[in-house]
Amino acid sequence: MDDRTFRNAMGKFATGVTVITTVMDGEAHGMTANAFISVSLDPKLVLISIGEKAKMLDKINTTGKFTVNILSEEQKDLSMHFAGQIKEERAIDFDWVNELPIIKNALASIVCNVHSKQIAGDHTLFIGEVTDIVTNDGAPLAFFEGKYSKVSQPISL
């Protein structure tokens, strides 16, 4: 199969949208990502996947820390900013937890120390041990078939 077929198939999996943040030399850095999963409850572990060409890869390798910020449906502009889809400069006013930047009003900000990492193809998988969490109410920003979307109605189980 070709790369486009693979990408199209992966796009059929609806995801939330996150911004991964870290701090290096006193400066906050972020990137938009949807490759994020919960791994373990005991210990509390999450996983992110960072491409080998992403600037964030070296930053997390250097700092050994990151935050996963799960965006609300009102934060599409932040996702676009950190994905490089908005070109004009914009000052982001972060909150800080455990000396790491978090996105204000994100649905959840999950602060982590790198527990382990694994190179897998053209990405590095970082497993983060959760050290703190900040949560807020709201509806999630979703991503499906390469487009932003909103969750229309939650289904009760």
From TrEMBL:
InterPro entries: Flavin_Rdtase-like_dom, NADH-dep_flavin_reductase, Split_barrel_FMN-bd
Domain Flavin reductase like residue range list: 10-150
Membrane spanning residue stretches: none
Record's keyword terms, sorted: Oxidoreductase
Record keyword Ribonucleoprotein present: no
UniProt entry tagged with the keyword Iron-sulfur: no
SUPFAM superfamilies referenced in this protein's UniProt entry, alphabetically: FMN-binding split barrel
Gene3D superfamilies according to UniProt: Electron Transport, Fmn-binding Protein, Chain A
Protein name, UniProt field: Flavin reductase family protein
